[in-house]
């Protein structure tokens, strides 16, 4: 029997200050807060994926994480609202690819530690 990975359950983001990052991911991006067992660890949810915010734990560099991409509808409106709530705009939304059945549009933001966040919409 072959076992395969199916979906992402959790993504860890290395931050310099969990309370500052928690405020950003909860209040600016609007993710659902789950729990915070200590001052150096907090968990939120983005749909079925859990987001873990933590200070460096032996590996990981603040602001040097992989890029998170969040799916939205009405990209331009959502992007503007997130910037208005305090996110730093890295690149305004624009078409990234024209595929046979849709266009992929992406805008980029930065969190307080400089981690890149993509906001994407598949326009059909």
SSE topology sketch:
Layout (H helix, E strand, L loop, with lengths): L9 E5 L3 H11 L3 E7 L2 E6 L2 E6 L13 E4 L3 H10 L3 E11 L4 E8 L5 E8 L1
Parallel strand pairs: 1-4, 5-8
Antiparallel strand pairs: 2-3, 3-4, 6-7, 7-8
For this structure, the CATH topology is 2,3-Dihydroxybiphenyl 1,2-Dioxygenase, domain 1
DSSP strand tally: 8
Number of helices: 2
Helix and strand element order: EHEEEEHEEE
Assign the structural class, choosing from mainly alpha, mainly beta, alpha/beta, alpha+beta, or little secondary structure.
alpha/beta
Please give the CATH class: Alpha Beta
Tally of distinct domains: 1
Q: Give the integer mean of the pLDDT values.
A: 92
Overall, the morphology is globular
Second CATH tier, the architecture: Roll
For the biggest sheet, the summary is: 4 strands, mixed
Distance between the termini: 38 Å
By CATH's scheme, which homologous superfamily applies? 2,3-Dihydroxybiphenyl 1,2-Dioxygenase, domain 1
Strand line-up of the largest beta sheet? 1-4-3-2
Helix content: 10-25%
- Rg (CA only): 15 Å
Descriptive report:
This protein is of the alpha/beta class and 124 residues long. The longest helix is centred in the N-terminal third of the chain and has 11 residues, at 18-28. It has one domain (10-123): 2,3-Dihydroxybiphenyl 1,2-Dioxygenase, domain 1. The strands form 2 sheets. A 4-stranded mixed beta sheet has the order 1-4-3-2, covered by helices on one side. A 4-stranded mixed beta sheet has the order 5-8-7-6, with helices on one face. It has 2 helices and 8 strands; from the N terminus they run E-H-E-E-E-E-H-E-E-E. It starts with 9 loop residues before the first strand and ends with a strand.
């Amino acid at each position: 029997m072959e076992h395969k990975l199916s979906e992402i359950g959790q993504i860890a983001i290395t931050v310099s200050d969990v309370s500052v990052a928690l405020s950003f991911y909860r209040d600016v991006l609007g993710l659902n807060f789950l729990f915070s067992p200590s001052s150096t660890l907090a968990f939120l949810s983005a749909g079925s994926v859990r987001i873990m915010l933590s200070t460096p734990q032996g590996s990981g560099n603040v602001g040097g994480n992989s890029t998170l991409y969040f799916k939205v509808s009405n990209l331009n409106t959502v992007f503007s609202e997130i910037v208005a709530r305090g996110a730093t705009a890295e690149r305004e939304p624009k078409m990234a690819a024209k595929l046979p059945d849709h266009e992929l549009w992406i805008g980029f933001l930065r969190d307080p530690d400089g981690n890149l966040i993509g906001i994407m919409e598949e326009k059909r």
